[in-house]
Amino acid sequence: MSTNKNLTLFGFFTITASMVMAVYEYPSFATSGFSLLFFLLFGGIFWFIPVALCAAEMATIPGWETGGVFTWVSESLGERWGFAAIFFQFFEITVGYVPMLYFITGSLAYLLKWPGVNENPYIKLAAMLIIFWLLTFSQLGGTKYTARIARIGFIFGIVIPAILLIVLAIAYVAGGNPVHMTVSWDSFFPDFTKVNSLVILVSFILSYMGVEASASHANEMANPKKEYPIAILFLVCIAIVLSSAGGLSIAAVIPHNELNLSAGVNQTFEALITRYGMGYEWIVRVIAAFIGLGVLAEISSWIVGPSRSIYVAAQRGILPPVFRKVNKHDVPVALVMFQGVVVTIWMIVLTLGGGSGNMSFMTSMSLTVVIYLMTYVLFFIGYFHLVLNKKDIDSQAAYHVPGGRAIKALVAAFGLLTSIVAFIISFFPPSNIPGGHTGEYETILTVGYLVVLVLPFIIYEFRDRKNSTNLKNEPITTENAPEGHFVMHPKARANVKINIHPDDRLDQ
């Protein structure tokens, strides 16, 4: 399939910009204080860049442009492993909704002046269930207005509050107010002798996840060998600057032992604004409303995308035929409803069994990361196999990691080793989370991970090739992408333009 080579460096940045503005992750960054700079640099250099470069090489091989990690891992390691990779990618989203919903309940608590929405686990769970299922059912009617809502929510609920937070924090520090973190060369580095203090690395890895979804767009660049690495370097620099500014703003203003992970941004706005007078408290509530609506809009845009990505496996006969059924709006109803049930289970387990609010938040983030890291482990192993054992196929790629096979292997090794390190330390209970209870963290993380680990292999054993549709899908490009596609975070985007078999359309 021929692709127009009209994507500029700036154009590539605009379609990936949504991944560098995750305001709901700033409070977890802040728990590491000034050492958040170290974690962001480490994750950016040794994980984000290797993923981006290796993914672009695999995505620009003829015939590998569609299906994302499912295609890349299937073609390099075999379909069983490809299905496991896309299954883990799909499942991490089901857990990833939970900290986002926690963030919304934190905003609701400020908006309604009702702390129980964020502090009472039963009220919190009820609010999350109502919000999530309302959003899910709204998406069954199609995503016609989702793009517009997501765009408005991203600008007014994410971008503007993030900029305002940073500006107010700078004014706070410049005004000589107390700074609640230590800024020094020693505090730049975490305590490497205590593994528990390194667990927060998972939140930084999470902030970088999903860049592989944009790798296929390297095909649309006039000179991907030159332009793509520059674009990725620019993107990681912007991500580090913005995330550092957001995390440090919170760490400087809110004492560590008072920080609430799900309400930390609103907590910081309250401290920054009410110091000018309690009469300005209403502004905090307005900002909380906009932030909550921004994350609501982001969640709504995530509902259908992941289901469409795993839909490719249903077309291959790996999933039961019911998961191929779509309604008149081309929404895979069974997959979306299955996703909703799984998210509901995670919400119940994490909210009622996760200990404190902060520990539930951290557990949900860590579980999201360890599940997604399994996708990346398979991805990097597949890349090694491609480069070392399938050189004839690799040579066809439009983009190559520069430096020859030795450098390719070194870059992939950095990414794989960082993934393994992050995976291992995730299972140690964190020591820098205020108000945490570690027993629940270890139990939920271990049991949850083991359950998800075996599921794709059990499902694959029951595959039925007779249910394969044998339809060819096409890659999503900047020319054929649905409206608002690039407003979404890359990891929530559908990675193919699905061709629906006539028999898979539900009766109208």
UniProtKB/TrEMBL annotation:
<protein>
    <recommendedName>
        <fullName>Glutamate/gamma-aminobutyrate antiporter</fullName>
    </recommendedName>
</protein>
<feature type="transmembrane region" description="Helical">
    <location>
        <begin position="282"/>
        <end position="304"/>
    </location>
</feature>
<dbReference type="GO" id="GO:0006865">
    <property type="term" value="P:amino acid transport"/>
</dbReference>
<feature type="transmembrane region" description="Helical">
    <location>
        <begin position="232"/>
        <end position="254"/>
    </location>
</feature>
<keyword id="KW-0812">Transmembrane</keyword>
<feature type="transmembrane region" description="Helical">
    <location>
        <begin position="441"/>
        <end position="462"/>
    </location>
</feature>
<feature type="transmembrane region" description="Helical">
    <location>
        <begin position="365"/>
        <end position="388"/>
    </location>
</feature>
<feature type="transmembrane region" description="Helical">
    <location>
        <begin position="195"/>
        <end position="211"/>
    </location>
</feature>
<feature type="transmembrane region" description="Helical">
    <location>
        <begin position="409"/>
        <end position="429"/>
    </location>
</feature>
<dbReference type="GO" id="GO:0005886">
    <property type="term" value="C:plasma membrane"/>
</dbReference>
<dbReference type="GO" id="GO:0015297">
    <property type="term" value="F:antiporter activity"/>
</dbReference>
<dbReference type="InterPro" id="IPR002293">
    <property type="entry name" value="AA/rel_permease1"/>
</dbReference>
<feature type="transmembrane region" description="Helical">
    <location>
        <begin position="333"/>
        <end position="353"/>
    </location>
</feature>
<feature type="transmembrane region" description="Helical">
    <location>
        <begin position="36"/>
        <end position="60"/>
    </location>
</feature>
<comment type="similarity">
    <text>Belongs to the amino acid-polyamine-organocation (APC) superfamily. Glutamate:GABA antiporter (GGA) (TC 2.A.3.7) family.</text>
</comment>
<keyword id="KW-0050">Antiport</keyword>
<feature type="transmembrane region" description="Helical">
    <location>
        <begin position="122"/>
        <end position="140"/>
    </location>
</feature>
<dbReference type="Pfam" id="PF13520">
    <property type="entry name" value="AA_permease_2"/>
</dbReference>
<feature type="transmembrane region" description="Helical">
    <location>
        <begin position="81"/>
        <end position="102"/>
    </location>
</feature>
<feature type="transmembrane region" description="Helical">
    <location>
        <begin position="7"/>
        <end position="24"/>
    </location>
</feature>
<keyword id="KW-0029">Amino-acid transport</keyword>
<keyword id="KW-1133">Transmembrane helix</keyword>
<keyword id="KW-0472">Membrane</keyword>
<keyword id="KW-0813">Transport</keyword>
<keyword id="KW-1003">Cell membrane</keyword>
<dbReference type="InterPro" id="IPR050367">
    <property type="entry name" value="APC_superfamily"/>
</dbReference>
<dbReference type="InterPro" id="IPR004759">
    <property type="entry name" value="Glu_antiport"/>
</dbReference>
<feature type="transmembrane region" description="Helical">
    <location>
        <begin position="152"/>
        <end position="175"/>
    </location>
</feature>
